[in-house]
Design a protein that fits this description.
The chain contains 14 helices and seven strands. β3, α9 and β4 form a beta-alpha-beta unit. α1 packs across α4, α6 crosses α13 and α10 runs parallel beside α11. The N and C termini lie far apart (89 Å).
Length: 365
């Protein structure tokens, strides 16, 4: 009886080159690599997604004729189509530093698991690098139930801040995206409308009260005159905190601890500012950006002792940066932040109920 023949070896199944290119861009962003490098992979992913003849181009060696596809990204596409994990992606996965490394405590992991969303993010409508849909897709993929879109307000021209007219148009775009998410059968997800509004020199906010009242959540931050004397900065911040539309106080010291933009903390009376946050129900942001890590732990402990609510946010300006929340979770665990006080550990309904009530809080709570 003849020996059974081994089946002919089959070619490996092709991978998804668009997904591989996006994953590389995500890892580059999370590692805070230069923007030009990230942009190269994202542009290539967009071109690859729109090309109907991708496999034919790979065979013919004409991938680089696609807009935004260069030698390195073309090689990644070819490897994906052949069923091989791209070498570039394999190297990134191998050297990528896990956000859970270096003493990421059990308490931090529990906080991370409790988070439902992110209350501070930017798109290419202001100074972010990616479209709203790309930011939302990544947040959804990370397991978030919601992402608050908080592009800058008009005074911050260097960040392409949104005028009232542009903000109104953005609300329409968000409504259309949410309608699509509601019917696509995927994981429940919603983009919440918001803004990172500048706190002006006198504590007023850089957007009309009518528009602020239409948003789901408002982050208020100081971006100018960061070296203002303590006696002036303290009432400036308190005036903003007392505004009925403010929900979160963003990166309260404005410090930069790494890189070329290194700068010291703004000076203010933390006891007064955090007492105001507690009094008016405004959450103190734990900003997870590695160059900010704001507030410093000594001030975060003071905010916790004052009974303040907290929001652990990424301040992401690119999709991969949405995975920086573990930085904030680590700081929250080290400073004994109670999980129940973290507003983005709440469900979407509870968060929106808080912001709605927050806009009409009485003089005495």
């Amino acid at each position: 009886m003849a020996e059974p023949r081994d089946p002919e070896p089959r070619d490996p199944e092709p991978r998804d080159p668009v997904a591989d290119l996006r994953r590389i861009a995500f890892l580059l962003e999370r590692a805070h690599e230069p923007t030009y490098r990230v942009r190269a992979f994202r542009r290539a992913a967009i071109s690859a997604a729109g090309a109907l003849d991708l496999a034919e181009r790979a065979t013919a060696g004409t991938l680089q004729q696609l807009d935004g596809v260069g030698e390195v990204t073309a090689r990644c596409i070819e490897e994906s189509l052949s069923g091989v994990e791209p070498v570039y992606l394999r190297r990134m996965e191998a050297v990528e530093v896990s956000p859970y490394a270096d003493g990421f405590a059990e308490g931090a992991a529990l906080i991370q698991a409790a988070l439902r969303g992110d209350c501070h993010s930017h798109s290419d409508w202001s100074d972010g690098g990616s479209p709203i849909a790309e930011m939302a897709q990544t947040a959804r993929g990370l397991g978030h139930s919601y992402l608050v879109l908080t592009d800058h307000s008009p005074r911050l021209t260097v960040a392409n801040g949104l005028s009232a007219e542009r903000l109104m148009r953005q609300l329409e775009v968000v409504a259309d995206l949410n309608a699509a998410y509601a019917t696509d059968g995927g994981r429940p997800f919603r983009i919440l409308t918001g803004i990172e509004v500048d706190i002006l020199d006198d504590g007023a906010l850089d957007q009309s009260a009518e528009l602020l009242g239409r948003l789901d959540l408002v982050v208020a931050s100081v971006h100018s005159k960061l070296r203002m004397p303590r006696a002036e900065m303290t009432p400036r911040m308190v005036a903003a905190i007392a505004n009925q539309h403010v929900d979160v106080l963003g990166h309260c010291t404005g410090r930069m601890v790494t890189g070329k933009r290194s700068r010291p903390e703004s000076e203010f009376d933390a006891e007064i500012v955090f007492a105001a946050c507690e009094r008016f129900g405004v959450a103190v942001e734990i900003n997870s950006r590695p160059e900010r890590l704001d507030p410093p732990k000594r001030l975060l402990r003071q905010a916790v002792e004052a009974g303040c609510l907290v929001s652990i946010d990424t301040d992401a300006h690119a999709p991969g940066q949405l995975d920086w929340q573990p930085n904030g979770c680590d700081r929250a665990a080290r400073c004994a932040v109670p999980v129940e006080s973290i507003v983005n550990s709440w469900s979407e309904d509870d968060l929106l109920a808080w912001t709605a009530d927050h806009s009409h809080r009485p003089e005495e709570r």
